[in-house]
Specification:
heterodimer; A: 86 residues; alpha+beta; Alpha-Beta Plaits; four-stranded antiparallel beta sheet; 4 strands; B: 447 residues; alpha/beta; Anaerobic Ribonucleotide-triphosphate Reductase Large Chain; two-stranded antiparallel sheet
Chain lengths: 86, 447
């Protein structure tokens, strides 16, 4: 699960998804919300075919996020399953 | 993949990202008794042999952190109590070598702590236990990642005041970093993932992975957001947060356990603070409506919170164990520390709070100028409470050449240590009685 938090502006979706494509990570779902006044974009991604390990992917996405002026977070889907569902 | 609605996703993101939710520690507990021998060299060589599994554990935990996106603050090792190893070779020299070897295991593997320089002395000291106890200061002063506990009291066996005296004397010989790695306990559990109480206890499998959760920031924020109107609503908010925090611990534990091929031990549902702003147990108490932690009502607030944490935690994991309480390590909790400095929170308050949470007096500075007897009196107070109430309680105080109210930065997770004032009246005559305190009546409930 990729979560992008920051100020909404043109180019964020393109910037993040091009990095994902570059690393062969497929976007399964994408949605947007506003979290206490802050823009948040949530992408469900499939990292099965990722060309780089998850830690590396996170660092690269964060690097890209920095260029775009947003924070990029990457969590495993299991975290949400464990914490939100019984 | 399971579908989540945005509210669910953002709630988790909020906890992990804004409210600093992380896992306090993952601990690999190892039965090291295979290394028992009457040859020093053989014992040390075999202990050295656990470096392999220890390194794999640290590496695996790092990988799980990366994959999940969840931070594990410390990685720890727990080993069989050293008193057994010192039994056939009861010398100071070997105690030092053994401590050094264990310290070396932590350093070589990248573990933050190795815990198990421990002994059980509730009714008296065996050969090995005595050597461990009498050389505690030397060993701790000469190591940096080794930790351990002296279990000097239990509801089953009584309270060994002689051992408390020896421990206090040893404590006064320790440098601050050494004293921060030892505690004296009552009813120590065999499966604690926390240092200094962690050791590979009796009745445990050969190895296991245990997890300690954290999350005061999550609970404090949830309380503030929910604006509860009744005690029941307040209880509910804390319970739900504690459930979620514990589930994260369960997940991390399961992953490390599976990857490493080592059974899962326990999830310790203790609410443990860290010196970071926004990760404080005192902050929860204050979010619950106390102007400052230490106000009248603090024990009630803590009892309510503890009950909610345990009920939420129990639902989240069927492997609860360890200390499972609310920790009040003063220096590691920025607001708790501030309240002690301000004088709104005293040692007596902390003692009263221990009646409703299994912590005791933890990470508080005491002034060397106030003398060993007063510290011994304080330890006896805490251990007696554990004895009579049937609770796990301990004392970890740091003697300093400073006066009450002064503070010193211990660095990192240990935070700012404030010197708390012990009471002026002299307890010397009472604490100088020799022997052990008889087992409490509660013992007879068991048979």
């Amino acid at each position: 699960m990729v979560v992008v938090v920051g100020k909404d502006r043109p180019g964020i979706v393109a910037g993040i998804s091009s990095k994902l494509a570059e690393r062969n990570v497929n976007i399964v779902d994408i949605s947007q919300t506003v979290l206490r006044g802050v823009f948040a974009m949530i992408m469900v991604v499939d990292v099965e075919g990722s060309a780089v390990p998850l830690g590396e992917l996170r660092r690269e996405l964060q690097e890209r996020g920095k260029e775009l002026g947003v924070e990029v977070l990457l969590y495993h889907g299991e975290v949400f399953k464990f914490m939100e569902r019984i | 993949m399971m579908k989540f609605d945005l509210r669910e996703i953002m709630e988790v993101v909020d906890m992990l990202w804004r409210e600093d939710l992380d896992i306090r520690s993952v601990t690999l507990s190892l039965n090291t008794l295979f290394a028992l021998s009457d040859s020093q060299e053989r014992t040390l060589e075999k202990i050295r042999g656990i470096r392999g599994i220890a390194s794999r554990f640290v590496e695996t935990t790092r990988e799980v952190e990366e994959r999940l996106g969840v931070r594990v603050v410390t990685k720890r090792l727990a080993v069989s109590p050293v008193e057994y190893f010192l039994e056939p070779i009861p010398t100071m020299d070997f105690a030092l070598k053994l401590g050094g070897e264990l310290d070396g295991v932590a350093k070589a593997s990248g573990a933050d702590y190795v815990s198990g320089f421990s002994a059980f002395v509730e009714r008296g000291e065996g050969r090995g236990a005595r050597v461990a106890l009498e050389n505690l200061a030397r060993v701790m002063n000469s190591t940096s990642r080794l930790s351990g506990s002296i279990n000097a009291a239990s509801t089953v066996s009584g309270l060994n005041a002689e051992a408390v005296r020896t421990f206090t004397h040893q404590l006064f010989l320790m440098e601050p970093h050494a004293a921060s790695r030892v505690s004296i306990m009552c009813n120590i559990p065999p499966d604690s993932p926390f240092v200094p109480s962690a050791h590979h206890g009796r009745g445990m499998p050969n190895s296991m992975v245990s997890v300690a959760v954290s999350g005061p920031g999550v609970i404090a924020s949830a309380v503030r957001r929910a604006r509860p109107g009744s005690f029941q609503q307040l209880h509910e908010v804390i319970k739900v947060s504690a459930f979620k925090v514990t589930r994260l611990g369960e997940l991390v534990g399961r992953w490390v356990s599976e990857e490493l091929g080592v059974p899962m031990g326990v999830v310790d549902i203790s609410v443990a603070p860290s010196p970071k702003v926004g990760d404080s147990v005192a902050e929860i108490l204050e979010a619950m409506g106390l102007e400052k932690a230490g106000a009248n009502g603090t024990v009630a607030a803590l009892a309510l919170m503890m009950d909610a944490v345990k009920k939420g935690g129990a639902m989240a994991s069927n492997l609860v164990g360890g200390l499972s309480s609310t920790f009040i390590p003063v220096s590691e909790d920025s607001i708790m520390s501030l309240r002690v400095k301000e004088g709104t929170l005293s040692l007596s308050d902390l003692l009263a709070m221990s009646a409703v949470c299994n912590s005791g007096i933890d990470m508080v500075g005491v002034s060397r100028s106030q003398g060993e007897e007063r510290v011994m009196g304080l330890i006896l107070d805490v251990l007696s409470m554990g004895l009579v109430l049937g609770k796990i309680l301990g004392v970890r105080v740091i003697p300093l050449d400073m006066e009450p109210g002064e503070e010193v930065d211990m660095g990192g997770l240990l935070g700012k240590l404030v010197v708390a004032k012990l009471k002026d009246p002299d307890p010397s005559r009472f604490v100088s009685f020799w022997g052990f305190m008889p087992t409490p009546l509660r013992r007879l409930d068991m048979g």
